[in-house]
Amino acid sequence: MPGEDKIIEVRHLVKHYGKFKAVEDVSFDVFRGDVYGFLGPNGAGKSTTIRTMLSLISPTSGEIRLFGKNLLTDRNYILQRIGCIVEKPDFYKYLSAEKNLEIFARLSGVSVTKSKVHEIIEFVGLKGREKDKLGGFSHGMRQRLGIAQTLIHDPELIILDEPTTGLDPQGIIDIRNLILQLKNERNKTVLLSSHILSEIELIATRMVIINKGKTIVQGSVSELLNAQELIVAFSVNNIEKAKQLLANASLDKTIDKIEHNSMLLHISQEKIPVVNKLFCDNGVDVYSIEAKRKLEDYFLKLINA
Amino acid sequence: MFWKSTYNEFIKIAAKPRSYIGVGAITLIVGIILFAMKADGMNFISFVTAPFEQSLSFEGNILNGNLIAFIILQMLIIHVPLLIALVTGDLVSGEGAMGTIRLLLTKPISRTKILFSKYLAGCAYTFIILLWMGFMALIVGKWLFGTGDLMVLNSDGLIVLQEPDLGWRFALGFSVAFLSLVTVATLSLTLSCFSENSIGPIVSTMAIIILFNIIGALEVPVLQKIQPYLFTTHMMAWRSFFEDPLPTEKIIHSIIILLVHIVGLLGIAMYKFNKKDILS
Which residues contact A241 (CB under 8 A, 6 or more apart)? Predict the structure, then answer.
């Protein structure tokens, strides 16, 4: 665990709206320095959990501690150390980007200078647009401004709830790079909720998966995924011969799909070089070996279990 | 933090186009009234004074700035609540509709402080609207029509108040009018805490005022019992400052009823706002 310093501790969180159980039993820990993936299908209770952690929603029961303090008793101490985007970053459309940042900076609990506002605007790539009213901003630009708003008071923890929703591919890459910059250059802890699994797989160090309001699994991304079979695409020159070789070999594998000169195998990580050697030793040329959708497969297995 | 939040609220109100509807509407309506009075004011006055002309003779500048201000205040105090509610009804629900409430309530400032800063900004806006109305009616009215004694017609008959005796009456009259408009602002802010869109609180505020005015006008014994407790009954309390002798008890009673409404509505607003789950 990075530093073993728990920044978020959620214990047996429950939230009911009348008879509807939005969250039934969610528990997880986030450590300082984590980029923490918060995963779950639509309606799993991700947004409710995040809103509860930010005191937007009061929990029915359970305990939330951030920075070692209880959210119910030390709300302002905790919120001063958090920057967040909850779902889409909405701002005052009748104000400029700069004025919007100033409005939220004034409430951040720390003194924020004009030069700091301009520095953050430059960091998120909005320099030159700071005087423009938000009415003319694209979704991607608002998302960048949302990130700027989270950073304006230099918080220790950044919570991003679905930050790439509605963005085009370039926008998604930009936000991903921004998050990596936050971790690597600014040493921030990031809690990232998303159902774009490839994004989480690329940037998260640890993760929790929830479904139907309950925690299913949590831990290090690499450990959780390595413990599972991989889906590996072998691209070869002779697919029929490769198929024959696999059929005769006593390997623990499943052929998932064959397309042209490529086959998808369910296989453990240590078996990849064995299969590669098997093909090479028997005159099958291997053009490429590519691990595919590890997290997606893992996620679907857990959700459908 | 409270004052920073209040400053933010002032900035938001000042930047919203809808905030200028009230100022524009008052300028236009008062402008039309002033123009109409300048063009045909004496006919309007003679319509009022005609029944008394057999027993009284009127001398001096009857159609003066004081009378114009009194007429304008009487006409507009019924309609200004709509202009106030346009802004104050949007203070909380507008944040919900825009989605900014999510960001606002994740800042290290209590919900109570946020609500009070919104309320303070709403009261300041109400004051500015009333001040503008006072300026247009009294200052521009005196500039156009000159000054003089104020002739007031009420249920007891015709009262003539001498000009040196009018300054404090207008000042206190405007103060009580401000209190009644603040009651409307508090009502719309409270309704705003229950809504996720801006239209609902604005329409509901006006609907309540209309309903209470209808109840206040019906001479039905069961309704007459509740009439003294409706804030709308006391919205014209400012007019009592233009009576002679001054009905002090009646004025104090009205002020207490308005204050009770303000405190009660604020209590409801605070409870709702603090308990509210932000789902938008």
Answer: A282, A283, A284
Residue type, A100: N
Residue B50's alpha-carbon distances to A255, B45, B57, B61, in angstroms, are 105, 8, 10, 16
What is the per-residue pLDDT across A258-296, written as a single tens digit (0 to 9) for each?
777 888 887 877 788 888 898 899 989 999 988 765 677
Cross-strand bridge partners of residue A23: A15
Q: Which of A276, A214, A288 is nearest to A251 (CA)?
A: A276
Instruction: Retrieve residue B172's tokens.
Output: 């206190």
Q: Rounded CA gap, A243 and A237, in Å?
A: 12
**pLDDT of residue B268 exceeding 90:** yes
CA gyration radius for chain B?
A: 21
Q: A135: burial class by Cβ within 10 Å (0-12, 13-18, 19+)?
A: exposed
Query: How confident is residue B128, by pLDDT bands cut at 50, 70 and 90?
Result: very high
List, in order of start, the domains of chain A with CATH numbers: 2-225 (3.40.50.300), 228-304 (3.30.70.340)
Please tell me if residue A157 touches chain B, with a CB cutoff of 8 Å: no
Asked whether the beta carbons of A241 and A226 are under 8 A apart, the reply is: no
B117 touching chain A per CB within 8 A: no
Strand partners, A10: A28, A64
**B107·A107 Cβ contact <8 A:** yes
Question: B104 — contact with chain A (CB < 8 Å)?
Answer: yes
DSSP 8-state assignment for residue B58: -
* Mean pLDDT (whole number) for B13-30: 90
- pLDDT of the residue at B275: 92
Question: Is the CB of residue B160 less than 8 Å away from at least one CB of chain A?
Answer: no
Asked if A93 and A133 touch (Cβ cutoff 8 Å), the reply is yes
Q: Do A106 and B5 count as a contact with CB atoms less than 8 A apart? A: yes
With 90 as the cut, is the pLDDT of residue B218 above it?
no
Q: Which residue of A has its CA nearest to B10?
A: A103
The CA-atom distances, in angstroms, between B182 and each of A26, B22, B24, B79, B269 are 45, 15, 20, 14, 14
d(CA B272, CA B255): 26
* Alpha-carbon dihedral angle through residues B115, B117, B122, B128, given to the nearest 10 degrees: 170
Nearest CA in chain A to B13: A94
ipTM: 0.82
* pLDDT digits 0-9 by tens, A177-192: 888 888 888 888 999 9
pTM over 0.95: no
